[in-house]
Design a protein that fits this description.
The complex is a heterodimer of chains A (198) and B (557). With 198 residues, chain A is an all-alpha fold. Chain A contains 6 helices and no strands. By secondary structure, chain B is mainly alpha-helical. Chain B has a single domain, classed as Up-down Bundle (Cytochrome C Oxidase, Chain A). Classes of the chains: A mainly alpha (198), B mainly alpha (557).
């Protein structure tokens, strides 16, 4: 029965570990990807199984402009974090604002598409299986865009008050990982909904 | 080291008022306190879930019994399953992971302490939400009833048509909310193990406990998320009139089964990997030997993690998936027995030639080895689709998975309680009461679950509230129910032992087992900061190196 209090000695040692922010965000992205996978599988499983109209081919057209906006926001957020690493706060703020604008334009695109589908084509989540799977998958993605925009806007407010400094570059990178994920998911959603599903 | 002087870290010199004391616990972000909160919370639900099981067994003690109504019986098996999986097993294992991982890897806390608190409180409120259905499920009438759709809640039973009222909504929301808690805790465990290890602790020098919990957390991330997605779909169906599982509108009831079991089967491994983790720490210490085949153990763990993602549809052989799908899931299910078998051989080889000390934790681990082997063997039997067609949905299945969860997981959990209780409380438990608990529970377990296989083989289906006499099931059911009372007595001795030892136990000292991992190098209970200075390790058994400077492990690893 050893009751001695043992304290291991401390020696100098080269010791580097991955950043917990990046690992944590990557794990969150893995969880989110699993959630999206289930919704994508449900969408693909129910393609063409609706018992009544409207069908995707009748009412959907690929939103190329809004897709372009969302995908280019990945580029602008990359430029933003690069500017921050180079101490250029004014340029960082400009790129960051552009990212938010592009995301907001995309969200407007989704909103106007939903408005058209609901009021012109009479498609709601309870109309048929297409409506069920379409609104839930696109809605789940839209929800992630909203969460992303709230986070980006929070950073924007801090930037306007001059609180974002170079030492925050790591955190900005972690946040931009999430934004890149939201953009990448859209590529999958676009392919599934507007290419395969039609 | 006297534990007299070591008070709980945030306690001030003047004895704090009850409100202050409560406040420090409610607002805590310390991994040790959150771990204890998880464990105590799960123990409360263990008693509740155990009472529900006892009610079912009393109802089934003889044919045509009318202890409870059929409606109550349905609620009992639903609540028992849901409670035991989501609000006992997961939180209790998260509690041990939370408490031990930072201590074992030489860190001062988890990677994200506040996320940790978030995860606990989400789980806690999820459990409250489930039980709030008892008063809230009928809306404002102040009366309600518990969910009664079974713990896997197959469609279309969960649709508005067949589940009137809100009891199913409470079930869905409880699992959704606690699922968010589980995912955030899993993210935290992954980040902690990968990013918080003390200098020198490479992945190949981590205690197996950290490795197994890392794989467990990865599985939670990949398996609980699909359940979350399926619960969102169910909510959309019930509240917004969506048609995911609505067969009238072309939806599919079978796709719910797929989504549920994509969660449900990896979940078994989420629960059993921490059990393996306990066994992998406790068996070497009480055999006085280093773990046999560390790299193979890690490899087998990772292999289990991967294969477990591709076996889910063996829960669905009776649905009629077609020959190709059946064949695939038969083979993948058979394959997962291989890495699991490797682990059993490694534990046996660890004990082989060791100086085995039959303390209570070791007794539970030895029982686990035998019982888990049998549980695995009935699992292999049922992985053959034709065998499953015969016995699917019978008491044989119930006996099989209780053999895994009680005989495997709960036994190692008891081992873990006795092994780490001195570290968590600073007090030594009573060895006599511990052994009494072991024997009572061992007898009760085997009375209940050995004999439960037989009515299953004789054709007794699960989830029936009563049965006709003269089918040859009567005596078996009587024996099964008698076993429950032995188990209940064992649990009472266990809880009594915990309470008595906490208040009256002898001081345990920092290292009562002469063990080798870092948590035994700090005080019992550990201070808030865990380690006065962050340790540096050179081998898998850092304390062995310190105790035996003439013959350290790092020379051989």
């Amino acid at each position: 029965m050893n009751t001695a209090h043992l304290t291991p000695p401390r020696t100098e040692l080269e010791w580097r570990l991955p950043s917990r922010g990046r690992v944590g965000m990557s794990a969150l992205i893995a969880a989110e990807a699993a959630i999206f996978t289930i919704f994508v599988v449900a969408y693909l499983f129910y393609v063409g199984k609706s018992l009544s109209g409207p069908t995707p081919r009748e009412v959907l057209s690929p939103p190329f402009f809004y897709t372009f906006c969302l995908l280019s926001s990945s580029l602008t957020i990359h430029f933003a974090s690069r500017s921050l690493r180079r101490w250029n706060f004014r340029r960082f703020g400009a790129w960051w604002l552009l990212t938010i604008t592009l995301g907001a334009i995309f969200l407007y695109g989704t909103a106007s598409e939903w408005h058209r589908l609901i009021y012109r084509d009479g498609l709601t989540i309870s109309t048929n299986l297409f409506g069920t799977t379409y609104y839930s998958l696109v809605g789940l993605h839209g929800f992630h865009v909203v969460v992303g925009l709230v986070c980006l806007s929070t950073v924007m407010v801090f930037t306007l008050f001059g609180a974002v400094k170079q030492e925050h570059a790591e955190r900005i990178d972690v946040l931009s990982l999430y934004w890149h994920f939201v953009d990448a998911v859209w590529i999958v959603v676009f392919t599934v909904v507007y290419v395969i599903g039609r | 080291m006297s534990t007299e002087s070591i008070a709980w870290p945030t306690t001030t010199a003047a004895s704090p008022s009850f409100v202050d004391h409560l406040h420090t616990w409610v607002t805590t972000v310390d991994h040790k306190r959150l771990g204890i909160l998880y464990i105590v919370y799960a123990l409360i639900f263990l008693v509740i879930g155990g009472v529900e099981a006892t009610v079912m067994r009393i109802q089934l003690i003889r044919p045509h019994n009318d202890f409870v109504s059929p409606q109550v019986f349905n609620r009992m098996f639903t609540m028992h399953g849901t409670t035991m999986i989501f609000f006992v097993a997961m939180p209790i294992l998260f509690g041990f992971a939370n408490y031990l991982i930072p201590l074992m890897i030489g860190a001062r806390d988890m990677a994200f302490p506040r996320l940790n608190a978030f995860g606990f409180w989400m789980t806690a409120f999820g459990g409250l939400l489930l039980y709030f259905s008892l008063v809230g499920a009928n809306g404002l009438y102040g009366a309600g009833n518990a969910p009664d759709v079974g713990w896997f809640a197959y469609a279309p039973l969960t649709s508005q048509t067949f589940s009137v009222g809100h009891s199913t909504d409470f079930w869905t929301l409880a699992l959704l909310v606690s699922g968010f808690g589980s995912i955030s805790t899993a993210i935290n465990i992954v980040a902690t193990v990968l990013c918080m290890r003390c200098p020198g602790m490479t992945l190949a020098k981590m205690p197996l406990f950290a490795w197994l919990n890392l794989v467990m957390a990865g599985l939670v991330i990949l398996a609980v998320s699909p359940l979350t997605a399926a619960q969102i779909m169910l909510l959309l169906d019930r509240y917004l009139g969506a048609h995911f599982f609505d067969t009238q509108a072309g939806g599919s009831a079978v796709i719910w089964m797929h989504f549920f079991w994509i969660f449900g089967h990896p979940e078994v491994y989420v629960l059993v990997l921490p059990a393996f983790a306990f066994a992998s720490e406790i068996i070497p210490v009480f055999s006085r030997k280093a773990i046999f085949g560390y790299p193979v153990m890690v490899g087998a763990t990772v292999a289990i993690g991967f294969i477990s993602m591709s076996v889910w549809a063996h829960h669905m052989f009776t649905v009629g998936m077609g020959a190709n799908a059946n064949t695939f899931f038969v083979l993948s299910t058979l394959a997962i027995a291989v890495p699991t078998g490797i682990k059993i051989f490694n534990w046996l080889a660890t004990m082989w030639g060791g100086k085995i000390e039959f303390k209570t934790p070791m007794l539970f681990c030895i029982a686990f080895l035998f019982q888990f082997l049998i549980a695995g063997l009935t699992g292999v039997m049922m992985s053959a689709a034709p065998f499953d067609w015969q016995l699917g949905n019978s008491y044989f299945v119930v006996a099989h998975f209780h053999y895994v969860i009680v005989g495997g997981i709960l036994f190692t959990l008891f081992a873990a309680f006795y092994y780490w209780f001195p570290k968590m409380s600073g007090k030594m438990y009573s060895e006599i009461l511990g052994k009494l608990h072991f024997w009572l529970f061992l007898i009760g377990f085997h009375l209940t679950f050995d004999f439960m296989h037989v009515p299953g083989l004789l054709g007794m289906p699960r989830r029936i509230y009563t049965y006709e006499p003269g089918r040859g099931w009567d005596t078996w059911n009587l024996i099964v129910t008698i076993g429950v009372f032995f188990q209940a007595a064992g649990i009472l001795v266990f809880l009594g032992n915990l309470l008595w030892s906490y208040y009256r136990g002898k001081d345990a000292g920092s290292d009562p087992w002469d063990a080798w991992t870092l948590e035994w190098s700090t005080n019992s209970p550990p201070p808030a900061y865990n380690f006065a200075s962050i340790p540096v390790v050179k081998s898998r058994r850092p304390l062995w190196d310190l105790k035996h400077p003439d013959d350290p492990d790092w020379k051989y690893e």
